[in-house]
Hints:
It is built from 13 helices and ten strands. It is an alpha/beta fold. The chain folds into two domains: 7-262, TIM Barrel (Alpha-Beta Barrel), CATH 3.20.20.70; 272-333, no CATH class. It starts with 6 loop residues before the first helix and ends in a 17-residue tail after the last helix. Residues 37-291 form the DUS-like FMN-binding domain. It comes from Desulfobotulus pelophilus.
Amino acid sequence: MGLPASSCTRSLLPDLAEKLRQPFLIQGKEIPFRTALAPMAGIGHVAFRHWVRHFGGCGLLFTEMCNARALPHENPALSEVFRWQPEELESLICQIFGEDPDLMARAAIRIEKEGFFGVDLNFGCSVAAICKQGGGAALLRNPDKALVIVEKVRKAIRIPLSVKFRTGWDDNVKNAVDLARKLETAGCDLITFHPRVAPDRRNRPPRWDHIQKIKEAVSIPVLGNGNIFTAEDGLRMLEETGCDGLSIGRMAAARPWIFADLTGQLSEEPDTAALLLSMHAGYCRHYGELRGLRLFKKILPYVMAVYPFGHRMHAHIRAASHGEDLHMRIREAFATNPRPNAAPNGNLMV
């Protein structure tokens, strides 16, 4: 199984798979699975998405954050984040960040012209470098501007428009509920909600009850996001919050086959070491040896988080200086065929 195995997880998978295989609509377009790859900086690029698509079971894919100011002039052959394969466009949403409504609209027009399924506006990233520019979660302090951005983008494009946002800069969910209603009125077709306050760097658990409040406030689909590590987590989020689907990030980085597993599409769990070797080769094909190795190392802490002594395995593999060395270290780390723990190590799931 794609998640750390337990008898409880095995017994719950059929129930969860049945729920996740129920199609739903976004702007009249049918999505075959109620699952989404959450946007992740440095991870959710074209080389990684290839493997998620390879295994299947993922209804929607999201790019990494793309700077709206740069995107209208980006060259996909050179850009690390604004790059894709033609076959993924039918389910791929491009996420952009910025604070200028006109620039956000201009970027959205480029995304639509390239044939993406949709545009996603990031109102949730709390990284200082993004917030200092007025983008990401900084817009939750200025909801009026956030709504102007949504309205401008909505007028500029016809493809689906989604927004990912957090509870806010404090734990007052009433503000988030009010914003969700206004986002729908402004033309948003899909919400991905991460129920944490913006300053929280995962040092506290997400408030899943806040997802329920957002779902109850709007009629458009809502994807729940935050701490979905096991099948038990996924089923509980769906049942407790009423959300329309699951947005999974860190466990997808650890196990690109998680969507296939949760939707009942996985026939056999892949060999992790062999998969890592193939993934590294794919990274290098897309980005060259140096960038490929750098990007590959970004997924390592997530992959190793589910293994006993994962810190030691991570340090050993990460020390590789070139591709041949990396492959040797991966084989050494997995030589004893380690079995995954029942839950990931939170210290590595940063």
